[in-house]
Design brief:
heterodimer, A: 634 residues, mainly alpha, 0% strand, B: 316 residues, alpha/beta, six-stranded mixed sheet, four-stranded antiparallel sheet, 11 helices, 14 strands, 38% helix, elongated
Amino acid sequence: MISFVEPTKRRLRLHEAVPFGPFRPCRPSSCKNTKTEEDFCMAMQTVTTPESAPSPVRGDQPTLARYFGGTGWGMVVMGLVIVFANRTAETPRLFSEGWGWLFVLVGLTAALAHAAAETDLLVRRLIGLVGSLLVFVGVVLGMVMSGRGRSWALGLIPALPGVALIALFLRRETDAVLRSRGTLAFGIVGWLLAALGVVGTIAAPHLLPGWFAPLMVLGFLLVLGYLGLSGVTSDQAFLVARGLGALGAIAILYALLRSIVPTLLYEWRNPSELEHKITLASGLSLLILGVLGRTVWGQPRDLSLPTHHPNTARVSGNWAMLIGAFLIVLGLLRLFAPEILQKVEWGSEPPRPYLVPTGFVLIAAGLLDVLVAIGFLSENRLVVLTRRELMAFFVSPIAYCVMAGYVFIATPSYFLFLEDLLIRAERGIPREEPIVQGYVIAFLPVVAVLLSVPLITMRLFAEEKRTGTLEVLLTAPVNDWLIVLSKFLAAWGFFILLWLPWWLYLLALRLEGGQEFDFRPMIGFSVALLACGAAFVAMGMFFSSLTRDQIISAALSLMGMMILVGFFFIERNLRGASSAVVTAKSIMRAMSFIHMWIEATDGKLYVRDIAVQLAQAIFWIAATIKVLEARRWS
Amino acid sequence: MIEVDHLSKDYGQVMAVNDISFRVGKGEIVGFLGRNGAGKSTTIRILTTYLPATSGIARVAGFDVMTQSMEVRQNIGYLPENVPLYNEMRVVEYLDYRAKLKGVERHERARRIEEAMDRCRIREVRQRLIGTLSRGYRQRVGLADSLSHRPPVLIMDEPTSGLDPLQIRETLQTIKDLAAEHTILFSTHILAEVEAICQRMIVIHKGRLLADQTMAELTRDEARHLTIEVKGPVDTITAALKSLPGVSRVSVRSDQEGWLELDVRVAERADPREAIFHEVVKHHGSLRRLETRRRRLDDYFYDLIRRADEAAVAAA
């Protein structure tokens, strides 16, 4: 019974805290005029509302998401049962092992989608627990596998989804302590793993593919997740980002020095004819120019300006002096190097190449680290804008659908590719290099690109127009072209990220297949992908800037993509020998990105093709800027 | 701080803003009144550099909105209608992002954001996703954002629309507090709001400027009617009142149980109330009520608009 008394008491107390008075007695004649200035102000002063946080919003019940989650976990279990059955049974089962893995994959994606939308605290924590369990299984599996002499990276298969589940759990966790400690653990573990990867690569380069490359990737992803979770306002995240940047810088510096210094030492054993003279002469002249710039031209003409006022001549003079001094030191070193080197017997034998592939991988990883650190720390407006756009990608469900779609498409196309390789191996027909051509130039990747570009870009401007945030953005002190560029960069970055599974599967092929193959066409293909990705994304962005309806924007970009893909098929089916047909065919060949892909995977990367794609990108970006400006044309 | 000279804006056929001029001085708090579609938002959008004017000049904080758009943007805090915000960001994240865009220095940023959050009373929701906030809180987050770079000029487009009465009061109080440091122009179509906090109001209707008056001027205009209730020798009193200096007309409104209610029309800038009292006493009458009849701002506003419409009809 007492519990019934309590609320009344509390209500009373609350009432006391909100004095609704004293109201001035209303004069009968002016009653209709109570809303005069004085009354209004008086009421405003006396009514002090208790300031309290709004009640927690329940939001939409994640009913659909729960169906997703339930079905997803069911599929995971079913898939695992299929895999297990196939491995233990002697006779072939109804579903092959590949089906099992596909089930697991689909199930996990659904489970992730559910985890992102779940609102119930208990369920979210359960998800976090399952994630931790998966990570634990992954660690154990990795240890067992490396004990058996295989790559530890197999442990990543359960661990990565586990990490994703934990990240999603942490993002929505309401308990501040749990949240901050969990995210910090993310950051520290990630940084340590990345550091271990870099140090390991430096110490034992031959272990790079099987051991340290996955380690670096995992560490990088963890730190990325941490930075995303804690946000740019956190001081800890600031530290971790700096640490990541330092790590990347070390990796790049080491790789560069390790590639350059031995070669230099070997070459500098011989005295030079001209090199030291040229270096010394240019160094001296730069030094003199710099001194002149500082003293003569750099003197402030307007004496009223403060002394630290930026002065172009003086600043460039300083730089010229610095570079000149460096060149002089370099020239002197070159002059005396042969004697010293002969004395200490360094670089007596020709060095083994380091840059390809170890140095290259190290530099790429380092660059990625430094880029992320800069992206996180920088106050530059372009970086700030791009960061927000990227973040917007990673919180929207469509982005995850697209990512999942890419994983789905990467998986069967990898299996198709693998099957082809296996059949050929069985029959003894060698597949010609470049074998990777069969992997990326196929039906599925093209479809993936065709469908993903509209989904990536439809949001960019249409969403902001619909919600009205574009007005806020365009009245901030930021140039229009910066806004367009930031959206483009974010979408482009996301598009590139989508292709990560393709590369990871190739890494897997190398690790599990045990056979070396020519991976260099993939580098050419990456460059081609970068170029045509820029063109696609810029086109989609343009269409998004035209409308406030995402569907229309997506439909327009899909049409644009169809035309781009269409060039390839039309060119192939166009028959005839008249000059018009030949010209049309050559134009279509130049425009068709599939042709470019084929040539790139053949190892032929034409500047012409890249220029065509980049020109398209620049055209669409410029057009988008004009569309934004068009509101001012009236 | 805000100077508008012969500003016009047409959207093709529609003349949204038609040759309006006004000024807002430093530290003033000005209500921008008008019905829906009167051209308030268009004017505000021109002032915030979002749209260009078709003709005319507008300067904000000394900078031309057309040619010095970046400087203008740096010097205004703008709260658009309906407060568009990024729903997927956390409150503090959003404020930090915006402060960076607006170039608030790193060492000051945290303090400024805290300050803005305190002023707008959103500290308790700092870690919430904006999408989960109520209308009132969204409004305040938008306000905090427009304050974070300490702009000399604040421009708000219907800051109270969609709020409940209590929230409206709180928002108005916040705006009033801000007037100490900022010049404020806010648009609304609710007159009581203007009455409560503004020193001046600017009324526009169908793109044209109808009125630009300080509240003091307005109340002076309103004091032209007095209502009095007298008893005694009514006719002599009425005649005496009519002859008072500053009284232009006296009319009888009602007669209740011997008490006569009179409506006294007063000439401009005159205050004959004391004289009326003495006059009534001199003629041995009794006085039980003497008050200036305040015309409600609503009436004034509707009068303005009605007259403008009638003039337009007459002209046509």
